[in-house]
UniProtKB/TrEMBL annotation:
Database matches in CDD domains: GH16_laminarinase_like
Gene Ontology terms: biological process: carbohydrate metabolic process
Coiled coil: none
Gene source species: Conyzicola lurida
Family of this protein: Belongs to the glycosyl hydrolase 16 family.
Domain GH16 positions: 2-252
Protein origin, superkingdom: Bacteria
The protein, known as: Beta-glucanase (GH16 family)
SUPFAM superfamilies, per the entry: Concanavalin A-like lectins/glucanases
Molecular functions (GO terms): hydrolase activity, hydrolyzing O-glycosyl compounds
């Protein structure tokens, strides 16, 4: 995925951090910890949704709910709405993890991912992008791709995916990424599913994953280049739930 965050350099988290998403049902995100990505325009992937502030809220049971909605306008056109949030702070070396349920449906693309906090200065993919988990359409296969630049600035991808005998579905799972100098590791429920080092990165990729701390994003896209358009089987409302997100700094 490619996307946007603010252009200013955020504060850097170097100590233990967490958001348990406690609060009353319908309450918004904590603006000290999270910002909204708003608007439409395809988000670089020909996506259909407009990201709004109305499609993300606490559910009153210590979860954050991001809901993708598909409705029909008075003129018969279809409205696609969802939400995208990004941390106001960036995270240094350590492990960032989140306990999530991922929705299933044709044209849906839920994601937990990271972007280098220097994206406003260097652009994408020079910022680096770490897709901790993405599940286009269904959750029988999860994707854990890592994007970096070539010398000429084009996107080079280290692709990784995991097939699941039991689809991830609506069950809770912990998705985590650990960043240390020269190393990125991604896991599901403590099981390593992807890793990247300077020695193992694809030919032509430049290592940029130590250039800046990373901000975290949760998004639920509708349609676009990868999952394709929703169809008559796609639910009118689909929800991605986040139980918590936590950061544990690297030792030393």
């Amino acid at each position: 995925m490619s996307g946007a965050t603010g252009s200013t350099q955020p504060a850097v988290v170097t100590e233990a951090w967490q958001d348990e998403f406690d609060g009353a049902e319908g309450a918004g995100i904590d603006s000290a910890l999270w910002a909204l990505n708003l608007g439409a325009g395809g988000w670089g992937n020909n996506e259909l949704q407009e990201y709004t502030a109305d499609n993300v809220a606490l559910d009153g049971a210590s979860h954050l709910a991001i809901s993708a909605t598909i409705t029909t306008n008075a003129d018969g056109s279809t409205a696609y709405r969802s939400s995208s949030i990004v941390t106001t702070q960036a995270f240094s070396y350590g492990t960032l993890s989140a306990r999530i349920t991922l929705p299933t449906g044709q044209g849906l693309l839920p994601a937990f991912w990271l972007l280098g906090s220097n994206i406003g200065e260097v652009g994408w993919p020079q910022s680096g992008e770490i897709d901790v988990v993405e599940t286009p359409n269904d959750t029988s296969t999860s994707h854990h791709n890592i994007h970096g630049p070539s010398a000429s600035g084009t996107d080079v991808v280290a692709n990784a995916s995991t097939d699941h005998v039991e689809p991830l579905g609506d069950d809770w799972h912990v998705y985590a990424v650990t960043r240390t100098p020269g190393n990125v590791r991604i896991s599901i429920d403590g099981v390593l599913v992807a890793s990247l080092t300077e020695a193992t990165m694809p030919d032509g990729m430049e290592w940029v994953f130590d250039d800046a701390p990373f901000r975290a994003l949760f998004t639920l896209a509708i349609g676009g280049n990868w999952p394709g358009d929703p169809d008559e089987t796609t639910p009118a409302v689909s929800t991605m739930l986040i139980d918590w997100m936590r950061f544990e700094p690297a030792a030393g």
